Amino acid sequence: MAARKQLTFVTGNKNKLREVQQILEKTPSFPFEIVNRDLDVPEIQGTTQEVAIAKCRAAAKILNGPCLTEDTALSFHALSGLPGPYIKSFLSSLGHSGLNTLLDGFSDRSATAICTFAYCSSAEAEPILFEGRTEGKIVQPRGPSNFGWDPIIEIDGTGKTYAEMEAEEKNKLSHRYKALELLREYLTKQG
Ligand SMILES: O=P(O)(O)OP(=O)(O)OP(=O)(O)OC[C@H]1O[C@@H](n2cnc3c(O)ncnc32)[C@H](O)[C@@H]1O
Ligand SMILES: [Mg+2]
């Protein structure tokens, strides 16, 4: 059997990489083998889509070939979608408790976790986006603090935070899983 073609997933985040690999292990029809490169790619300011497109373009230019990038946003509805794509710096500055405090005074604590994969088929190609969303609400931390804001989002209909779920459970309903399903469909059709 011919070896599967490789696709470079540019991320410095080991937790993202682990989840992508776990999800794809359950998806035997995925047409590429994912290999990781940790490149320092600038992340611009803008909408989640603008940030994702610029990052993928920059990574494809550095690699001079096809690549995959991923951006994760966490949008609080009461704050018109903020922190959104800026969640990484909000989390590192404010921590779990500070993110909760941002919503004090609002009755609406709902939030959307958004995962945006961007795929460039060559260094010059326009990035194509694949977006997955999962709804929840921001709560005081519950469960292990292994990955970002997992302990402070309780996922609708489960009564659990992402951090309280086994990997398998998160990977069946997560923003990342949903985005990866769309990417898989697209790449499978491309042949
Ligand atoms: O190299 P890249 O892929 O950019 O990795 P990153 O860690 O910088 O990731 P982002 O720029 O997309 O920032 C997203 C932030 O949200 C966190 N995060 C991403 N996915 C998450 C998930 O499924 N659960 C909890 N936190 C997550 C992540 O740790 C970052 O703090
Ligand atoms: Mg980043």
TrEMBL record:
<feature type="binding site">
    <location>
        <position position="43"/>
    </location>
    <ligand>
        <name>Mg(2+)</name>
    </ligand>
</feature>
<dbReference type="InterPro" id="IPR029001">
    <property type="entry name" value="ITPase-like_fam"/>
</dbReference>
<dbReference type="GO" id="GO:0036220">
    <property type="term" value="F:ITP diphosphatase activity"/>
</dbReference>
<dbReference type="GO" id="GO:0005737">
    <property type="term" value="C:cytoplasm"/>
</dbReference>
<feature type="binding site">
    <location>
        <begin position="147"/>
        <end position="150"/>
    </location>
    <ligand>
        <name>ITP</name>
    </ligand>
</feature>
<comment type="subunit">
    <text>Homodimer.</text>
</comment>
<feature type="binding site">
    <location>
        <begin position="71"/>
        <end position="72"/>
    </location>
    <ligand>
        <name>ITP</name>
    </ligand>
</feature>
<keyword id="KW-0464">Manganese</keyword>
<comment type="function">
    <text>Pyrophosphatase that hydrolyzes the non-canonical purine nucleotides inosine triphosphate (ITP), deoxyinosine triphosphate (dITP) as well as 2'-deoxy-N-6-hydroxylaminopurine triphosphate (dHAPTP) and xanthosine 5'-triphosphate (XTP) to their respective monophosphate derivatives. The enzyme does not distinguish between the deoxy- and ribose forms. Probably excludes non-canonical purines from RNA and DNA precursor pools, thus preventing their incorporation into RNA and DNA and avoiding chromosomal lesions.</text>
</comment>
<dbReference type="GO" id="GO:0009117">
    <property type="term" value="P:nucleotide metabolic process"/>
</dbReference>
<comment type="similarity">
    <text>Belongs to the HAM1 NTPase family.</text>
</comment>
<dbReference type="InterPro" id="IPR027502">
    <property type="entry name" value="ITPase"/>
</dbReference>
<keyword id="KW-0963">Cytoplasm</keyword>
<dbReference type="Pfam" id="PF01725">
    <property type="entry name" value="Ham1p_like"/>
</dbReference>
<dbReference type="InterPro" id="IPR002637">
    <property type="entry name" value="RdgB/HAM1"/>
</dbReference>
<keyword id="KW-0539">Nucleus</keyword>
<dbReference type="GO" id="GO:0009204">
    <property type="term" value="P:deoxyribonucleoside triphosphate catabolic process"/>
</dbReference>
<keyword id="KW-0547">Nucleotide-binding</keyword>
<dbReference type="GO" id="GO:0036222">
    <property type="term" value="F:XTP diphosphatase activity"/>
</dbReference>
<keyword id="KW-0479">Metal-binding</keyword>
<keyword id="KW-0546">Nucleotide metabolism</keyword>
<feature type="binding site">
    <location>
        <begin position="11"/>
        <end position="16"/>
    </location>
    <ligand>
        <name>ITP</name>
    </ligand>
</feature>
<feature type="binding site">
    <location>
        <begin position="175"/>
        <end position="176"/>
    </location>
    <ligand>
        <name>ITP</name>
    </ligand>
</feature>
<feature type="binding site">
    <location>
        <position position="170"/>
    </location>
    <ligand>
        <name>ITP</name>
    </ligand>
</feature>
<feature type="binding site">
    <location>
        <position position="71"/>
    </location>
    <ligand>
        <name>Mg(2+)</name>
    </ligand>
</feature>
<comment type="function">
    <text>Pyrophosphatase that hydrolyzes non-canonical purine nucleotides such as inosine triphosphate (ITP), deoxyinosine triphosphate (dITP) or xanthosine 5'-triphosphate (XTP) to their respective monophosphate derivatives. The enzyme does not distinguish between the deoxy- and ribose forms. Probably excludes non-canonical purines from RNA and DNA precursor pools, thus preventing their incorporation into RNA and DNA and avoiding chromosomal lesions.</text>
</comment>
<dbReference type="GO" id="GO:0000166">
    <property type="term" value="F:nucleotide binding"/>
</dbReference>
<feature type="binding site">
    <location>
        <position position="55"/>
    </location>
    <ligand>
        <name>ITP</name>
    </ligand>
</feature>
<dbReference type="GO" id="GO:0035870">
    <property type="term" value="F:dITP diphosphatase activity"/>
</dbReference>
<dbReference type="GO" id="GO:0046872">
    <property type="term" value="F:metal ion binding"/>
</dbReference>
<keyword id="KW-0460">Magnesium</keyword>
<dbReference type="GO" id="GO:0005634">
    <property type="term" value="C:nucleus"/>
</dbReference>
<keyword id="KW-0378">Hydrolase</keyword>
<protein>
    <recommendedName>
        <fullName>Inosine triphosphate pyrophosphatase</fullName>
        <ecNumber>3.6.1.66</ecNumber>
    </recommendedName>
</protein>
